[in-house]
Specification:
The complex is a heterodimer. Chain A is of the alpha/beta class. Chain A is 40% helix and 15% strand. In chain B, helix 1 crosses helix 2 and helix 3 packs parallel to helix 5. The chains are: A alpha/beta, B alpha/beta. The interface between A and B is large, with 42 and 33 residues.
Chain lengths: 203, 171
């Protein structure tokens, strides 16, 4: 399925989820379809840490629900993250592995072992039970709502098989925020939802 | 665990709890094993052993954005692997992070494989303008809360470096 159309479908099914994106393409695609400037944290160029970042958030705010996107390029850099995610087993976090079978943020450069790696098998071998895979928009539209509202215990891992960005899509706008601006926008949003005091210190 | 090591670990844990630290993400180093065991058995903390040091950076940075106090605990070698994550996440977004690491490779550390840390750990910290505080004696453990608070004021990371003399005693 087309990357941006896949994200458009997810955005349609989103209700109150807080979103963490990863480097490059997932930030571009999510920004393109949502223009969300408060309830999404664009963790650009974190090289595999988007779901760890989201795990810290999900642990800290168990009443909120989090979606974290990660490309398979980032996943290849740190697959052991799944061990930590399984260990934490946070029911309010869904890890979306956006599999475009390329280093999408760097002009679709070759990924090691491309086409051979079975991400679902890796996740199950680590002990994850809620493992899902969507390869078409039809199946995503049909099955994702039930998955999302299942209220099942445990961490959820979703593989999205998408086409790499086209040359035209590579030109999609990056989220137009400087780091500290995004930190405060997102943090103030979390504060408004929860009453938590993130920043504390005031001049 | 020796009495001295247990007392040191307990005092460090008390300091962390007093700062409001709830999450501690760790990777081992022989010098901090007693501290890790102490933290793991302390109900004031959620202890998450992680797969690599960068994961601790991501986890604790996210916890901060969720208003949960946190600390990352690791050895010097592990710290040397996280420079990109620190500069990309914590410097670019100005997200506070409190780290604790071992001051390996100094006089008294007889492990030859830590010579590189002795040579380069402090120069690397200086190169990325990252503040650090060496804690060498029990009466300096109280500096932890000052340094933790500094990360929140400074909106960037800071690392505490524990010496062998503090954690294991001189030899």
């Amino acid at each position: 399925m087309r990357y941006v159309e896949c994200f458009r479908a997810l955005a349609r099914h989103r209700t109150s989820e807080i979103v963490i994106t990863s480097a490059g393409n997932s930030s571009q695609a999510w920004w393109a379809v949502t223009r969300d400037a408060d309830a999404s944290f664009y963790l650009d160029a974190s090289m595999s840490l988007s779901t760890m970042f989201a795990s810290g958030l999900a642990l800290a705010q168990p009443e909120l629900t989090f979606w974290a996107f990660m490309g398979d390029g980032a996943f290849a850099m740190n697959p052991g993250m799944l061990m930590v995610e399984r260990q934490m087993d946070l029911p309010n976090l869904t890890h979306f592995l956006v599999s475009n079978r390329a280093y999408g943020a760097t002009s679709n450069a070759d990924l090691p072992n491309v086409g051979q790696t079975d991400y679902a098998a890796m996740a199950r071998a680590i002990g994850l039970e809620r493992v899902f895979r969507f390869s078409s928009l039809d199946s995503l539209e049909r099955e994702f709502p039930a998955l999302k509202t299942a209220n099942a215990p445990g961490h959820t891992f979703v593989i999205l098989d998408v086409e790499p960005f086209s040359d035209q899509e590579q030109k999609l706008e990056q989220p137009p925020f400087d780091g500290p601006e995004l930190k405060y926008r997102f943090g103030r949003h979390i504060e408004s939802l929860t009453g938590a005091d993130i920043f504390g210190y005031r001049i | 665990m020796s009495d001295k090591s247990a007392t040191t670990a307990a005092r460090i844990a008390d300091q962390l709890a007093a700062c409001g630290v709830r999450l501690i993400a760790s990777l081992p180093d022989n010098w901090v094993m007693d501290l890790i065991k102490t933290i793991d058995g302390d109900e004031r903390f959620v202890h998450v052993p992680v797969n690599r040091e960068e994961s601790a950076i991501g986890l604790c940075s996210g916890a901060y954005m969720g208003a949960m106090g946190s600390a990352a605990l690791m050895g010097a070698s592990g710290f040397m692997t996280v420079i990109y994550a620190l500069t990309k996440i914590n410097y670019s977004y100005e997200i506070p992070l409190f780290l604790m690491a071992t001051l390996r490779g100094q006089a008294g550390d007889h492990h030859k494989h830590h010579v590189s840390n002795g040579l380069y750990l402090l120069p690397v910290l200086n190169a990325i303008s990252m503040p650090y505080q060496i804690i060498d004696r029990p009466d300096e453990i109280g500096l932890i809360s000052r340094c933790y608070t500094h990360t929140r004021t400074y909106s960037r990371p800071m690392v505490i470096l524990f010496t062998r003399d503090l954690l294991r005693g001189a030899h």
